[in-house]
Amino acid sequence: MEVLREDGEEEEEEKKAFVMSDELEDLEEKLSKIQVHIPNVLPASYKMNSAKEQMLLQLADNFHRQYAHLCPDREPLFLHPLNECGVEKFVSTTVRPTLQPYPELYNWDGCAQFVSDYLTMEPLPSPITPPSCLPSPTTTLKYQQGNCFGFSVVLCSLLIGAGYDAYCVNGYATREICMMDETREVCPLLKKSKEVRSPEKVKKYAVKPPRDLRSKFELQQAAKKEAEIEAAEEKKQKEEEDKLMESEKPKPDPLYGLRVHAWVLILSGKREVPESFFIDPFTANSYSTTDDCFLGIESVWNHKNYWVNMQDCWNGCKELTFDLGDPVRWEFMLLGTDKPLLLLPEEEEEELGDEDLDDFVTSWVEPIHISRKEFETRCPQGKKVIQYKKAKLEKWAPYLNSNGLVKRLTHYEDLECTRVLEVKEWFKNREDMMSMRQVNKKTEVTTEYFSPGHVQGLKAHIYKTMESETERTMEFYSETRVDGLQKRVENAQEMMEYFEGRSDFLHYRHTTFGKRTKKAQTLVNSELNARPIVQIKEQFHRNPEKPADEDVAERIFMILEERIMLTYHCKDDYITASKKEFIKQKDVDNKGNKIIMTSDMCISYQVGSSEKNKKLLHLYEMMLKLMEAEKQSKHQVWESKTEVLEILKIREEEAAASKLTVSMYDTERNEKSKQQRETMERLMQEERQRQVEQDLDYLAPFLIQMGSTEKMSKWQALRLKEDCLNDFKHRLIDKANLIQARFEKETQELQKKQQWYQQNQLSMTLEDEDAYLTYCSDAMFRIRILEIRLNRHKEMAPQKYIELEEKLCKDPRLAEYLKFYV
């Protein structure tokens, strides 16, 4: 029985399989009948060849036959591939030089970066042979994807249009270059620029160092030991690096030296290019012509001619000479271009003609057009991700993210990219002007950078937490601030402030804080709630208008010790500075007696002066000024703390809002925002008007006086209408009278002021005259405003009266009784 059941189950499964196969065949048959017809909108030059193009193709075939006969071991030339319409085109005519209207595309690095960001890489169908199809640069840009040859043609077209001597190169490169594999390359944003240290100038006159009395033998032995230790450390470090390099070394490439790749060559000369170099269109990186990544060159071409490399590439491109005018090293296809230096016979020159040579090679491609939206969007669908060695770079189009994020670089500790070390984010078009944010995941330190234009003049903000009275550093654009503050460094115990360009020559202030008392902690939002100040140290630059021994260099207010210390600038030809120390005492002692200034309250040290000490009165006045300066410094410190709290509050609000700004030249986004704003304002105005009409009942006061209105007679309706209109008329008259009274009052006060000025004109000061002129100006402004309001009220009052009468006649409570009286 079990065997029969198994056989039955197998038969059912076979039947189900046959049914499924029939359904699949039916589905495939129906799908094959469905065809999608793409509208053919390409120009005629894309679908056919002109007479000149056919002649070029014949010349290319003839050149290729001769080349294959003379060099049978070389690979076939990449001369006339098919375009997107299946038509053979000479490769030089595929290049379409076009200058774009964007300043970023005037330089080679901007063009290369745009092509790298805008297009998506597609590998070649066969890694060891050139493609059979080469689409036009307009089609490549339209679909935003292409292989290395498509990338190179687009980039070469932009570079030649910008004035560079650029060429497309058909050659061989390493696997990483061909496959756009940057996982073993360091991100360019992480490469540190080498700091060039300028050699220190040797002073002609310098103090000789003291004589070294140490044993030379002991010094030699110590240096020898240090050298051995350093050598051992270097050896150990080198071994670790070798192990790391061995572990990171890629596997051998079986197709090494055979992988076909296309890139761009820029020759020196035009656009002040000092030295020829390569550009990889996939990554937008520039390379030297002797770089190991490029293993050989078959041919190069631009929009005018085609050259074949006749040099040996056994050592890559290191020993190649890029003088395209040398016919021994570079075999050219067409005569009459600017590169070949061969002289033609006079008869051939007359037959060819210069004009024919210039117009012989013309591009069949339409001019490249990149719209503003496409240029801004850059990346396909607005986003692109690039994986580097221990790093990941993400790019977004402007305005794609609500917080203005356009670029993010994540730096990892390991090659597997699992442990985040640091995150850098770049922003654009933010209302708070933040341009970059850097977060160190190990130290948990966040650094924010701002462009000029922040509300508080903020330039950079370094912090761990947004809580107050914690460790943080704020940098400011000092030229935008009244106090000239450049940087403020703060923690729980102290605060350092750096200034520049101040009229009082203050450049540094250091404040030391103590712990709060329990009573102070209960106070909120007052100067008494601030942390108690222990000491304030201020430093000043030299004031050339004062003598050095009267120009304070450092001022220290020791608040708890009630002392003030002054240090003056050094005089010329002196190595010590004058100093003063004041000891503060209360003005009144315990018995209520006034304390007099004594010599013990000021300790001074005067440099290079034989004069006697200054009198006590002068020292007393100086101490009073210093005590007043101490109060001002304490208040400035409190203001600095208040400003820190205000900045932190503003930054929290800005981070929560993340508003973006739109440039006044961005017509597209401004138009949309304008329409949206006008629509919202119109809807709000209609809603407001509807609410006012619902809430305002102009008959309510009069209906209350009449009492019951359920049974209203015609006489009562007419009386109600007349009372309402009369009341409205009286209110209009009263408003006009009120404006007239204010006008007359202002006029009388002005006349009185003018009479007073005529009486006291001779005895008045400049300040009084300025005050009088200011008053007259303000008074005349108020008088004109009242005059305009009165005239407008007179014009609008009859219209308002008529509108009220019409509303009363249309009111449902009165319409039935007033329809015969309208």
TrEMBL record:
Species classification: Eukaryota, Metazoa, Chordata, Craniata, Vertebrata
Full protein name: Dynein regulatory complex subunit 7
Domain CEP76/DRC7 peptidase-like residue range list: 260-333
Organism: Pelusios castaneus
Record flagged with keyword Coiled coil: yes
Region (Disordered): 228-250
Localization annotation: Cytoplasm, Cytoskeleton, Flagellum axoneme
Family: Belongs to the DRC7 family.
A Gene Ontology term for the protein's cellular component: motile cilium
Domain Dynein regulatory complex subunit 7 C-terminal: residue ranges: 710-817
Pfam family membership, one: MORN_DRC7
Record's keyword terms, sorted: Cell projection, Cilium, Coiled coil, Cytoplasm, Cytoskeleton, Differentiation, Flagellum, Spermatogenesis
SUPFAM superfamilies: Cysteine proteinases
Cross-referenced InterPro entries: CEPT76/DRC7_peptidase-like_dom (IPR056290), DRC7/lobo (IPR033551), DRC7_C (IPR056292), MORN_DRC7 (IPR056291), Papain-like_cys_pep_sf (IPR038765)
Biological process annotations from GO: cell differentiation; flagellated sperm motility; spermatogenesis
Domain annotation Dynein regulatory complex subunit 7 MORN: ranges: 380-663
Top-rank taxon: Eukaryota
